[in-house]
Specification:
single chain, 367 residues, alpha+beta, six-stranded mixed sheet, five-stranded antiparallel sheet
């Protein structure tokens, strides 16, 4: 069953097109994230779904009903805002109960449903407090409870975790996903944080300049980006320019300059002489001291370089490495119990063929 469908939706503000020809079908119970940089149109799209903005063109359907002309309070959707939007003069109970009272739900049922929501968001016993007496994480849970208590057809999130500190944000990501799966409600989540999108979503829609660039599972978006923009926006990567030297079956040799060559596997239509850009995920590069790896000399995809900077992040360490043709690589290495390498150390970088994603320079599309 399709709970939400957008057909060729466009939104213009004067001469500026904020969203262009956007189409998507969201299945019942699916958690879909709109991901992209600031100004890409993701929040505008969410606000059109909620009814706060009217599309210039196109149609929006919720459970098969066209809702273009319906006001927000008739769309049966719940919204969780970035700034919580709780009523400061009301208690927690009254904040959660607000939508139920508006819908003329009987008092006894209101009490039961509010208490159930407090249990669901793990805040029982706080119904008498006011928002100012709660932490940021508690306020966000109350905002979620208020959205869920009306049993909406859709749950809409507008960057709800962006005001929280990193550790609390990670904790609430886990809780939010568990709650969403428990109640089984179809959810649209807007974020510019790729970790949030990857950890929460059944499907990610990457947007840029008002358009959908790619839609897919977190695995597909990360491992199989279909454009240079998606590959660059998601994850920590290094890019290196080259020219195709030879195509041998499923393997392609790319000249990097200064006598360096890399091998790339699994590429599509490509010919000798084509300019390409190779994307390499930072965590897929093995880094070793050059003096300890003499047996790797002469092997393809083993590059020599020098560490120009080091950033220690606890479980991981970031190495910035300049290779022989002056290209810069970022390497993310897990620390474990080994001693870190140091700035100015000579190193070897070993990169697997399948860890290299190849894009054409002309189209910026993956090959």
């Amino acid at each position: 069953m399709i709970d939400l469908e957008l057909k060729n939706v466009t939104k213009r503000f004067g001469a500026f097109t904020a969203v262009k020809d956007f189409s998507i079908a969201v299945e019942a119970g699916e958690f879909v994230s709109f991901l992209g940089p600031s100004g890409c149109g993701k929040t505008t799209t969410l606000r059109m779904i909620a009814g706060f903005l009217e599309p210039t063109e196109g149609e929006i359907f919720i459970q098969g009903q066209k809702v273009n002309d319906l006001p927000p309070y008739h769309r049966d959707s719940g919204m969780v805002f970035q700034n919580y939007a709780l009523f400061p003069h009301m208690t927690v109970f009254d904040n959660i109960a607000f939508g139920l009272r508006y819908r003329k739900v009987p008092k006894n049922e209101i009490k039961d449903r509010v208490m159930q929501m407090l249990q669901l968001v793990q805040l029982p016993g706080l119904e008498g407090r006011r928002p100012a007496q709660l932490s940021g994480g508690q306020q966000q849970r109350i905002a979620l409870a208020r959205a869920l208590v009306i049993k909406p057809k859709l749950l809409l999130f507008d960057e709800p975790l962006s005001n929280l500190d990193a550790k609390l944000r990670e904790q609430l990501r886990v809780e939010l996903r568990q709650i969403q799966q428990e109640v089984g409600i179809t959810s649209i989540f807007v974020t510019h944080d790729q970790e949030e999108a990857l950890s929460l979503s059944d499907r990610i829609v990457v947007m840029n300049a008002g358009e959908m660039i790619q839609s897919g599972t977190p695995y597909e978006i990360y491992e199989k980006p279909q454009s240079l923009f998606v590959g660059e926006f998601i994850g920590q990567s290094s890019f290196i320019d080259g020219r195709v030297a030879a195509v041998q079956g499923t393997e392609t040799l790319v000249e990097l300059g200064n006598g360096l060559t890399m091998g790339v596997s699994g590429v599509g239509a490509i010919a000798k002489g084509d300019k390409v850009k190779i994307l390499i995920r930072a965590e897929r590069i093995s880094v070793m001291q050059d003096s300890a790896q003499k047996h790797l000399e002469g092997r393809l995809n083993v590059l020599k370089g020098v560490i120009t900077d080091v950033s220690y992040l606890g479980s991981n360490i970031y190495y910035y490495v300049r290779i022989e043709n002056n290209a810069q690589f970022l390497v993310i290495d897990q620390m474990g119990e080994k001693s870190p390498l140091k700035k100015n150390d000579a190193v070897c970088l070993e990169i697997g063929f399948k860890s290299c994603l190849c894009f054409t320079s002309k189209t910026k599309g993956r090959v």
